[in-house]
Automatic annotation (TrEMBL):
Monomer. This is Shikimate kinase. It comes from Neobittarella massiliensis (ex Bilen et al. 2018). Catalyzes the specific phosphorylation of the 3-hydroxyl group of shikimic acid using ATP as a cosubstrate. Keywords: Amino-acid biosynthesis, Aromatic amino acid biosynthesis, ATP-binding, Cytoplasm, Kinase, Magnesium, Metal-binding, Nucleotide-binding, Transferase. The keyword Kinase applies. Substrate binds at residues 34, 58, 79, 134. Pfam families: SKI. Belongs to the shikimate kinase family.
Length: 168
C-alpha cells in the first residue's frame, strides 16, 4: 500500500469524511490541511480570506502542503489546492493523489449552507462554473479517480480496492 494518499476534489465531495474513514481502515494518520492551517494560524479560513486575502490563503496552503510528509498519512486537500501548478506538481511527485469525483448536485447539497468564503461570495451558477472549470484539472492531477456520490464508507472501500488492484 502507498505511504501517502492525498484526497482532492470540489468542496463538499467528501474529502474529510472519506479521508477519516480511509485513515481508520489503513491505520494511517488523517490530516485535513484546512484544519492544519486554522490551527497553525489560529484563525478560521473565512477570517483569513476577509482579513488578508484569498492570495494570502493560497500562499499559506502551499506552505502547509510543502510541510507535510507522506508517511502513513491520508491528507485531505482544500478544493482549490490542486488548481495551482506548484501544488499539483508536489501532489504528483510525492503523493498518490485520489480525485473524489462527485456530481455538482451532491457537492452543492453539502456546501450550500456553509460559511466557506467561495460559497458565500458566489451564486449557484458561479459555483457550477467553478466546478466545471476545476474538474479537468483534478482529473489531470490525480493518479486515481473514484466515483464519489455514494456513502463515505463505500467510497473508502472503493479506494482501498483500487489501490490494492493497481498497487499505487
Ligand atoms: C476552497 C475549499 C475549501 C477551503 C477554502 C477554499 C476552494 O476547502 O480550502 O475555503 O477554493 O475550493 P474544502 O474543499 O475542504 O471545502
Amino acid at each position: 500500500m502507498v505511504d501517502g494518499i492525498a484526497l482532492i476534489g470540489f468542496m463538499g465531495c467528501g474529502k474529510s469524511t472519506v479521508g477519516k474513514e480511509l485513515a481508520r481502515r489503513l491505520n494511517y494518520h488523517f490530516i485535513d490541511l484546512d484544519t492544519a492551517i486554522e490551527h497553525g494560524e489560529q484563525m478560521h479560513i473565512p477570517q483569513i480570506f476577509a482579513q488578508f486575502s484569498e492570495q494570502y490563503f493560497r500562499d499559506l496552503e502551499h506552505q502547509y502542503l510543502t510541510e507535510q510528509r507522506p508517511h502513513r498519512v491520508v491528507l485531505s486537500c482544500g478544493g482549490g489546492l490542486p488548481i495551482f501548478a506548484r501544488n499539483a506538481q508536489l501532489l504528483q511527485e510525492n503523493w498518490c493523489t485520489v480525485f473524489l469525483d462527485c456530481s455538482f448536485e451532491a457537492c452543492y447539497r453539502r456546501i450550500c449552507h456553509s460559511t466557506r468564503p467561495l460559497v458565500q461570495n458566489s451564486t449557484p451558477d458561479q459555483l457550477r462554473a467553478l466546478y466545471d472549470s476545476r474538474r479537468p484539472l483534478y482529473e489531470n492531477c490525480c493518479s486515481l479517480q473514484i466515483a464519489a456520490d455514494s456513502s463515505p464508507f463505500a467510497v473508502a472501500g472503493d479506494i482501498i480496492k483500487q489501490l490494492r488492484l493497481h498497487r499505487h
